[in-house]
Amino acid sequence: MARKNIFELPEGADASADQQMLRSSLAKNRPLLGLERPLKQGSPLGAISQSLDSINSKVKRAEEIELKLAEGHAVVEIDPVLVDASFVADRMEATQEQHREFVELVREHGQQVPILVRPKRGEAGRFEVAYGHRRLRAAQDLGRNVRAVVRDLSDEQLVVAQGQENSARTDLTFIERARFAARLEDRKFSREIIMAALNVDKAALSKMISVACRVPPDIIDEIGPAPAYGRLRWQELTDLLDAEGGRARARQIIEKPEFKALETDKKFEALHRGLSAKATRVRSEPWTADDGTRLARVTETGNRLTLAFDNRIAPDFGAFVRGRLQVLYDEYKRRPKDE
Fold first, then answer.
1. Widest Cα–Cα separation across the chain
2. Percentage with pLDDT > 70 across the chain
3. Burial bucket for residue 285 (CB in 10 Å: 0-12, 13-18, 19+)
4. What distance in Å separates the CA atoms of residue 70 and residue 149, rounded to the nearest whole number?
């Protein structure tokens, strides 16, 4: 599915007419200032003569910036304390080490790519992130303004922009994308909008949502993003969890201190391995002598076969077999290969 730029002006549109339309719209709205209408000389602010010129100058500057933003050109700087996270999360929290590394990168090279925000509804002067949460957090930690593009986005436009930006950067893992899709569906977004946000077709989206819904949230949180593992391995894990006792067994595994000490990919491996071992089919049956005496039990688990002798029935039989293991092994090696 080709991605559509939802912020471009229609092809062939008259730029000057569009600018007039934008200026008219912006005269009624000042998202950067949190104002619902243009300031007037006759308003109560007119009494503050010394600051009026400054305020009107700010209004004029806001109009210029907003016009450029609407045309897709301007980047502004915003105090990060005025910016809130998106209403739907798309990624898991980075580890402290990953966050420190990212902050140092921004400290050394600056914020190279602006974030995208929209004016927050019902809260004048505040903004909401469409994408760029890590950059916003780094700016907060560094005490710097965050470079941003402001758009007046609908909820649908915000989630499409959020999903497409992350898809283009390919830094969201499968389970993060799957969980993002499931959260959007929980919020009643249409499948068409979710497909556009994640740039996937209907079949792929159904599989993603299925995995995100079948794996319990606490287990996903404990594993983490697991960047090394894609859809097929997560589907395998989902099937293991769906097996009888799978979820209970998984929670026993993830609560162990040694599991919690692992990094995210190793956690996935450990849980998959633990559930696979538990799910291995066990076959067990008694071995009965020709005279009808049950002398041992044969148990086969995966690649392991064990013999358990009942010393109550034949107290010395187990020791007798153990003493003849070398003879039996030599006989095994001499047997015809096709036997």
1. 114
2. 72
3. exposed
4. 9
End-to-end CA distance of the chain: 58
Task: For residues 236 and 245, give the distance between their C-alpha atoms in angstroms, rounded to a whole number.
Answer: 16
Two tokens, residue 242 = 């769906």
Condensed to tens digits (0 to 9), the pLDDT of residues 261-287 reads: 999 999 999 999 999 886 556 677 888
Q: Which DSSP symbol is given to 45? A: G
Q: Is the pTM of this model over 0.85?
A: no
The answer to whether the CB of 311 falls within 8 A of the CB of 305 is no
**Residue 305: what are its φ and ψ, rounded to 5°?**
-125, 130
Dist. CA 248–CA 241, nearest whole Å: 9
pLDDT (tens digit per residue) in 250-260:
999 999 999 99
The phi and psi torsions of 84 (rounded to 5 degrees) equal -105, 160
Half-sphere CA count of 234, side-chain side, radius 13 A = 29
Helices then strands (H, E): number in the chain?
15, 8
Q: Is 11 helix (H, G, I), strand (E, B) or coil?
A: coil
Nearest of 85, 103, 86 to residue 94 by alpha carbon: 103
Contact 152/31 with Cβ under 8 angstroms?
yes
In this structure, the strands spanning 127-131 and 83-84 are parallel
SS3 154: coil
